[in-house]
Amino acid sequence: xxxxxxxxxxxxxxxxxxxxxxxxxxxxxxxxxxxxxxxxxxxxxxxxxxxxxxxxxxxxxxxxxxxxxxxxxxxxxxxxxxxxxxxxxxxxxxxxxxxxxxxxxxxxxxxxxxxxxxxxxxxxxxxxxxxxxxxxxxxxxxxxxxxxxxxxxxxxxxxxxxxxxxxxxxxxxxxxxxxxxxxxxxxxxxxxxxxxxxxxxxxxxxxxxxxxxxxxxxxxxxxxxxxxxxxxxxxxxxxxxxxxxxxxxxxxxxxxxxxxxxxxxxxxxxxxxxxxxxxxxxxxxxxxxxxxxxxxxxxxxxxxxxxxxxxxxxxxxxxxxxxxxxxxxxxxxxxxxxxxxxxxxxxxxxxxxxxxxxxxxxxxxxxxxxxxxxxxxxxxxxxxxxxxxxxxxxxxxxxxxxxxxxxxxxxxxxxxxxxxxxxxxxxxxxxxxxxxxxxxxxxxxxxxxxxxxxxxxxxxxxxxxxxxxxxxxxxxxxxxxxxxxxxxxxxxxxxxxxxxxxxxxxxxxxxxxxxxxxxxxxxxxxxxxxxxxxxxxxxxxxxxxxxxxxxxxxxxxxxxxxxxxxxxxxxxxxxxxxxxxxxxxxxxxxxxxxxxxxxxxxxxxxxxxxxxxxxxxxxxxxxxxxxxxxxxxxxxxxxxxxxxxxxxxxxxxxxxxxxxxxxxxxxxxxxxxxxxxxxxxxxxxxxxxxxxxxxxxxxxxxxxxxxxxxxxxxxxxxxxxxxxxxxxxxxxxxxxxx
Length: 738
What we know:
This protein has 738 residues and is an alpha+beta fold.
C-alpha cells in the first residue's frame, strides 16, 4: 500500500467474481464511495483502489462484501496454490457432471437406446448435475439477486433451472412421465407438447459451462505464470560476511543496504549490489532476456535474481526488499496487468448493461412466441437459449488475459509495459527519436587521444582534466577520468565545482579556475581548433581544457556505436517509423554516428531541456513521437513524448521513467517492445471482435428459435476458451534481440 498527502492506494484481492459483470458491479460499488476511484480486473481478481486518507481499508472491504463478494488487502504477491485449489474444485465438478450427464445427453439424443423409465433415470442424474455440480452458478445468482443485481450467472442459472423445472413439470404433471415415452434430438427447439423433457439441455449447459470455467481457470494460471516466475527469482537465503570475512547463512530478509555477502558459482545473487571482490560471468537471462552471460568485476553493478555462472563474488548490497530492480519490475508488470485499456472499459460498460438487456430480450422472446401461437415449451426453450447464448464472459476476458500474457512475456524479455494505454500509443507512433549516447552508442566512451597545448605537458593536461571532470557523472567525463587516472594515478580534489548541462564543467584546482568544455567555448588557438574540427569530423567528442582562460589542450573521446544499432534502425523503419537522432553533441559527431547506423534526420547540439522542445515541435508538425533514451537525462523528453521508451540497463531512474522500460541496453529490445505491444493490442482487438461477433450472431438465432440451448451453452463455453487460448499465443512471441 502506498500513500501520498491526501490519498492512499491499495490493491484488494477480490474473490467470488465469476464474470465481467461481477467485476463491473464491484467497481461500481467501490466508486460510489466518496472520494474513491477503483478499477476492478476480472482476470487478475484484483481491485486497484485510490481512496482518501481518512477512509479505512476495512470500509472498502466491507463495501465489497456487502455486494456479495470477498475482499482482502494482500500483503504479498499472489501465489499459485489459491488458483490451483479453484481449478481443482472446478475439475472435480466437471468430472462428476460429465460422468452423470453423459448418459442423460446420449439417451435424449438416441431414441433407440431409450429404455423404459429412461426419463426418470435421467431426472435422478440431472438433479445431481444441476443442483450439486452447478451449485456455484445458482449460489452466485442468488447472492446477486439478493442485492438486486444480475450477472452472467443469473443468465446461466435461469436457463438451467427453467429447463430443469419444465422437465419436472412435464414428467410429473404432463405426458413425459409415462413409461415407454421416447423423443429424439433436434438442433433447434422442438415444437412439441408436455410430452418432451429438456433434461439434456439443463445437463449439457451445466457441463459445458463448468468445462469452460475450468479451462479458463487453468489458462489464467498459465497466463500469469511469467509474472509468478519473475517474482520467484529472488534468492531465499544468503551468505552474509562479517568484518573478518566469515560467512553466516541468513534469510534474505535479513539483508540491509551496505551488507556484504558472498555469491558462489551457480547461486542466485540475493539482491542488487556492487561487486567489491572477485570477478565472474553473470547470467542475466531470467531478468533481461539477454542470452549471453555478462562479465563483471570490482565496481560493476549486479542485479538480484541473476545467476553467478563463474567464480566467487563478494557483493555489497545497494538496495533490498521492495527497492530492488526485480521487485520494481514485478510491481510494474502487476500494475500493467491490473489496468484497463480504453477499449476494455467500453467492453466493461457494455457487459454491465448487457445482462438486464438480455433478460428483457428473453422475456420478449417468450411472449413473442406465445403470441405467435407456438407451444409453451417451444417458447420457453427459445428463451432459455437466449439466456445462455448471451453470457458476456468472453468480453470480460478479452483484454485482461491478453495483458496477462503479453506483459508477462515482455517481462521475460526485459520489457516492462507500464499500462494498457501504452499499447494504443505503440500503434499510433510514426516517428522515433533516438538519444545518441547510451542508446545508439555504448554510452561508455573512452579516451582515445590527448593533444596538449604548446608549453603544456601531457601529464599536466590529463591531471587537470581528470580532476575537474571527476565530480561529473557525464559519460564523457567518466571516460576522461578513467583515462587520466590510468596514466597519472590518483587525481587531486577540486573546489567550487560547477556543471553547465550541454556546455561543460569548471572547478578550482591549485588556485586556478580550470574548465573542461566544448571547443567552441574555450577560445582555442588555431592549431588546436583545427585538430578539434578534424576529430569531430571523425565522429569523436572533443573536450577542451583551459586554466584561467589559458588553453591547456584537447582530449578526444570516442563513443562506439553498439553492434546492433544499425539493424535496430532498419527494423524500426520496417515497422513504419521514421528514426531521428537527437543528441547534445555537435552536428559533425552526430552525423557521423547517424551515417553509421542509417539515420537520415539529425538534431544535434541540443541541451537536455531543449529535447522537450524538439519533441513538441515534431508533435506540432502532426507527428506521433516515441523517444528512446536512457531514462535519466532524457526523462523530460520521455515524459513529453507520446511513447517513452527508457533504456534501463539497471539504472534506478530508468525503471521508473518512460511508458516502456527496456531493462537491457540493446536498441533491438526497443523494436521487440513495439512489436510485442502492437501484437498484444491486435490480440485484444481480435478477442473483442470475436466475443462481440459471437453474441451478435447468436442472440438473433436463439430468439428466432433456431438454436438448441445445449448448443448455445457449448458455444458460449467455446467462446471463452477461444479468447483465453488466443491470448496464450502471445507466449510464443519471439524477440529479435536474442
